[in-house]
Design brief:
By secondary structure, the protein is α+β, with helices and mostly antiparallel strands. The protein has 2 domains: about 30 residues, no CATH class; about 50 residues, no CATH class. The chain is built from 2 helices and 3 strands; from the N terminus they run αβαββ. The chain starts with 14 loop residues before the first helix and ends in a 15-residue tail after the last strand. Strand 2 and strand 3 form a beta hairpin.
């Protein structure tokens, strides 16, 4: 890591973006491997047009304002929305504390 991440600032923006991807360089960690089985959840993606939070955010602006790294919305056992931000994707290693 080269961006000034320390034990004192690793949970604070903008340092948290790099720290969450490299937490093993800051704290003792244990990797939890995902299983070999493919998820049995179906994707039935829907548009979230008209969605607004109480703070008048649409979904995209809510994700940006809340500094969301990844989000999956399930409805009736199906994935209806999946999005990753801030250098993350479906296979990214990420700290498990806001799940």
């Amino acid at each position: 890591m080269s961006s000034g991440v320390t034990l004192a600032n690793w949970r604070t923006a903008p340092f948290n973006i790099e720290a969450f991807h490299n937490i093993e360089k800051i704290l003792p960690t244990q990797v939890v491997q995902k299983g070999d089985k493919k998820s049995s959840l179906e994707h039935q993606l829907v548009a979230f047009e008209g969605f607004q939070t109480q703070g008048d955010h649409d979904l995209a602006s809510f994700e940006a304002a809340s500094e969301t790294d990844g989000i999956i919305v399930l409805y009736q056992g199906k994935i209806v929305y999946e999005n990753y931000r801030r250098d993350n994707d479906a296979s990214s290693k990420h700290i498990l504390m806001s799940l």
